[in-house]
Amino acid sequence: MKEKVDIEINRLVNKLTKDQKHDGSWAYPFETGISTDCYMIILLRTLEIEDEEDLIEVLVSRILRKQGKNGAWKIFHDEAEGNLTATVEACYALLYSGHRKKEDREIRLATRFIQRHGGLKEINMFAKVMLALTGQYKWPRFLPVPVKFILFPVSFPLNLFDLSLYARSNLVPILITADYKFSRKTKRSPDLSDLFLQRGDDGDWEAELTSWRSFQTPFGRGIGNLIGNPEQLHELALQRAEEYMLNRRESDGTFYSYFSATFLMIFALMARGYSKKDPIIIKAVEGLKSFQTNIGKQTHMQYTTANVWNTALISHAMQKAGVSSSATAIKKANQYLLGREQMKYGDWAIHNQDATPGGWGFSNINTFNPDLDDTTASLRSICSFASNTPIYRQAWDRGIQWAVSMQNDDGGWPAFEKNVDNTLLSWLPIEGGGSMLLDPSTADLTGRTLEFFGNDTHTDTYQPFIKRGVKWLLKNQAKDGSWYGRWGICYIYGTWSAITGLAAVKTRSNHPQVQKATQWLYAIQNQGGGWGESCKSDIEKKYVPLKESTRTHTAWALDALIAAEEKVTPEIKRGIAYLLETSEKVDWTTAYPKGQGLPGGFYIHYHSYEYLFPLLALANYRVKFC
Q1: 200 pLDDT exceeds 60?
Q2: Least crowded by CB within 10 Å, which of 51, 60, 482, 483?
Q3: Separation CA 220–CA 232 (nearest Å)
Q4: Residue 533 forms beta bridges with which residues?
């Protein structure tokens, strides 16, 4: 077995080394289905940018390749018939592109699916906003969240910074466009009237907004506390919202380097009177175009890039697998990471005013939006350099201090911002609910942060902040022994993070809750030795098996069991055998999403995961049991 493990480790290391870019990073695609491809077509057509026909054509090709035989598009392989919102987005983009007409078979099949599943009224709220912006859907008569909301001070019980960064970056431009009821049609805009089920029905938000009315009281109370002329306050709110967007653009012109936020910002700026040819809008479009990536022979518009995340994880995994820190690949990776440490204050400082910058972000573009996951991942990678190289030691110390400072008051760790967990907001009737609107402590972030401190800093496990983190994890375990992971799929991911974190800070392996978690993992192992979990777990908020194993899920489960067990078990041996037997596996499970973006909305296929996590699990197995 050891010889086969060595061979597979060497194969994975060689594969990853070959794929490294000249700048030291790994730029594997951050794949998120077809929505961003569709929205890019819709944006280019709306702005009447005529010199992008080649880009539109290749995006149309990818969208069509993803269509199912029944005319629908799915956001993950085992989704029942298809996804209504994704199918509407695809149908609209294809028609707007001009490369498909209503009488074409693909459109007829898609139209039939949409009509059979409730029409445009049943799509998610973000897609309705997009349709309203492009003149295909009515804006609501009233707004439950008024634009003056942006003027509420941080001291007010409900304010803009009670929302997660993701929610803010999308909500602020929506507040502007909805206030103006802005929409823009062109001579090429398709007619989507046949996607409404009732004649004369061109969009009605009233039913879904009824449930928002209970939230109007705090908004109304806040507006009542604002001092000044109502018209002046209204214009001031619009100005503040505009400034919020413009002040948070990255060097490439994108808003927070997020596709959806930048798409919405462009429409918000036009609502404020900017020309579609304004340099700010042109630069934003160019920034979005730079998100292009190639997946095989297809072109995909990424939601953002994942270079820092990929690089930190891969460099660490390779070092765990025995690649020397003096190797060229590791030195180049760490030089890249060192240059991506974020030294600017961002919105994270609103709730963490005593901390100084020192974290890392997700993409190669990002400069003021660090997160816990990327920070601890980057610190793991540079760990061996920090002991004898002053410039790395300084980055190490800053990163450690920032990570400790970001611990929530409840003892767990969030992704982006501290104590953004106003539970009132989690009840708003928006797809994704609390997962989108809030940034609470999660098992995956808390577990991996503990794992970093335990394994890479050798922090005394009796430190109060470590004990509080452990207490949060143990308190938030599910009854079946698993933990839910917010940023991966889903319970296997969270359980892996929690177990490895608890083991790293010396939680005894026979602790009843650790034992319960390992027994849960054993119970869900597939007959072939692997593990697999469906994206449905996220939607149903309970573990749903995929009925097929994936190499990534198997690696997470194995790594957790290797950390928890003192001796190799038959189940671990079967899992290792599965990884060795499937080393060349390429099928739908390879491309199955392993990450979450917007729960129930879009999921992420990290192309790097198929290599780095099996490498990490095999490396840890070799060290402990071979």
Answers
A1: no
A2: 51
A3: 17
A4: 545
DSSP output for 568-593: --HHHHHHHHHHHHTTT--STTTSS-
Query: How does the average pLDDT of the chain come out, rounded?
Result: 93
Per-residue CA distances from 257 to 6, 17, 415 (Å)? 39, 27, 17
* Cα–Cα separations (whole angstroms), residue 389 to 334, 383, 386, 591: 12, 10, 6, 39
Q: Which residue has the tokens 């987005």?
A: 89
Q: Could you read off the pLDDT of 540-555 as tens digits, one per residue?
A: 999 999 999 999 999 9
Whether the Cβ atoms of residue 91 and residue 67 lie closer than 8 Å to each other: no
Distance CA 372, CA 404 (A): 10
Query: How far apart (Å, rounded) are the C-alpha atoms in residues 87 and 67?
Result: 9
Residues β-bridged to residue 359: 342
**CA of residue 379 relative to chain centroid, distance:** 21
If you write DSSP's letter for every residue of 429-476 in order, what string do you get?
A: S-TTHHHHH-B---HHHHHHHHHHIIIII---TTSHHHHHHHHHHHHT
CA distance 379 to 383: 6
**Phi then psi for 255, rounded to 5 degrees?**
-90, 110
Nearest to 336 by CA among 370, 297, 364, 359: 364
pLDDT for residue 209 is more than 70: no
Which DSSP state fits 328? Answer: H
Catalytic residue list contains 373: yes
Candidates 373, 374, 444, 456; catalytic one: 373
Q: Can you tell me the distance from the alpha carbon of 547 to that of 550, in angstroms, rounded to the nearest whole number?
A: 10
The pLDDT of residue 50 is 85
Measure Cα distances from 83 to 88, 103, 112 in Å: 9, 22, 13
Spatial separation of the C-alpha atoms in residues 8 and 16, rounded to whole Å: 12
474 or 197, greater pLDDT: 474
- Please report which confidence band the pLDDT of residue 158 belongs to, taking 50, 70 and 90 as the band edges: confident
Tell me the C-alpha distance between 52 and 42, whole Å. 12
Q: What are phi and psi of 341, to 5 degrees?
A: -65, 140
Tokens 């199955």 identify what position?
Answer: 592
Q: d(Cα 251, Cα 283) in Å, to the nearest integer?
A: 9
Residue 364 above 60 pLDDT?
yes
For the stretch 589-614, what's the b/e string if a residue is b when 16 or more beta carbons lie within 10 angstroms of its beta carbon? bebbbbbbbbbbbbbbbbbbbbbbbb
